[in-house]
Amino acid sequence: MATLDISFKPERAHLRKPKRGVIAEKVVPQSVSGRYRRLKWAALIACLALYYILPFIRWDRGPSQPDQAVLLDVERGRLYVFFIEIWPQEVYYLTGLLILATLVLIWLNAVAGRVWCGYFCPQTVWTDLFLLVERWIEGDRRERLKKQGAALTPRRACEIGLKHATWLLIAMGTGGAFVLYFTDAPTLLADLALGRASAVAYAWVAILTGTTYTLAGFAREQVCTWMCPWPRLQGAIWDPEALTVNYRDYRGEPRGSAKKAAELKASGAPAGDCVDCMQCVNVCPIGIDIREGPNFACINCGLCVDACDSVMTKLSRPRGLIDYEAWANIERGRRNEAPRRRVIRPKTVGLGLAVVTLTGLMGVSLALRGDAKITVIHDRNPVAVRLSDGQTRNGYAVRLYNKAGQERSFRLDVTGLQGLVEIVGEEGPVGVASDATRELRVLVTAPIDERQAVTFTATDVETGKVVSAQDVFIPVDGGR
């Protein structure tokens, strides 16, 4: 039985636990090549392309409607995502989307641990981009470590200045792209460049520039380890059958150099494949040693797999000493049992079905919703009034929603009781402007002394489509 290490003690030589009052040096990861590094580059390019291009994609919604494919229109209170339009009253769709995202993350965790963190998390994407810039300008890990304690020369000052200037440009592009999702992107981009944008737009660009620059440039592994809540959840939902990055210690131990291992094997003594080259630690963006066992800080990026496979290939030893493997198989390997891949199991199937079901329900709900709606709110104080002729009057606030692209007229009716219906200030059909709402004051008078359900219906005069909402008619004494 394994326990998930939450101590997070970096094992590399320059990151051993510092003495009191001494701050440990920052993690300086080394570059690496391999299939997982290529997958990370592909994910980085795809995520950045989606983020920067999406605001400029057009989508025709008809006259007087915004043509930006993805737009959060704060002024009009609308969220547009291609053919989907979400109104403020439909916030339950956003709630459903958040629940769906949570289910997907839990399902991914059951399949492959923190694979989201290692490949698609914005913090990971921009950190990788910042690290790429740092390597281009200052060199790889060995060169950067040498320069950390070296004297400041004009060349070194230029390198530092160029690196931070490039980081700031990327961060500014990040903040600038984010605000493009809130208004027409080409127009706002031109306004930002020419100094014509609002102070609010520039303020948000500055805020997001600062956060991106700080988090991706200086707080890299601290964000993934301490600021993000997901590592803490790992301790509760960690699954030993998930394909996480693990070290096959039954094959790698005892560690030793290639020469020493050959001598031990020649004498009949046990010798492992791990040569303790520390490459797996050097390439880790978090600074952990995966050979110490499961660690909550591991983001499952697979870079240590690439590094170890490269060393094993050079030594003509089998790859996979560090690999995406279930911890349960590590324990089976220690017992000389055959590994079993159990990606498809009740937990993953159940979570997958939950994701599919919720996605289907939200899709059906979106497909079946109409372009008109009516809501009714009963008066609270007073709930009912006794008139001089003995009849009872109830008041209601009725709101009509017209989600179509043209003005519409509705005929309002109340069914469920015999009485007089009065729409204050209106006679005949009620007009509602395109893509707008209208609130009406409705008074219902009836000679009854008991509670009774009533139905408010709004009928489109032109198309005959009907929407309805139910409420109740309450007598003065509250009724039965």
TrEMBL record:
Membrane-spanning parts: 39-57, 91-110, 165-182, 202-219, 349-368
Q: Name one GO molecular function term.
A: metal ion binding
Report if keyword Thylakoid is assigned. Answer: no
Q: What is this protein called?
A: Cytochrome c oxidase accessory protein FixG
NCBIfam families xref list:
ccoG_rdxA_fixG
Going by the entry's taxonomy, the superkingdom of the source organism is recorded as Bacteria
Q: Which InterPro entries match?
A: 4Fe4S_Fe-S-bd, 4Fe4S_Fe_S_CS, Cyt_c_oxidase_cbb3_FixG, Electron_Trans/Redox, FixG_C, Helical_ferredxn, Ig-like_fold
Record domain 4Fe-4S ferredoxin-type: where: 264-293
Q: Which UniProt keywords apply?
A: 4Fe-4S, Electron transport, Iron, Iron-sulfur, Membrane, Metal-binding, Transmembrane, Transmembrane helix, Transport
Q: What is one cellular component GO term in this UniProt entry?
A: plasma membrane
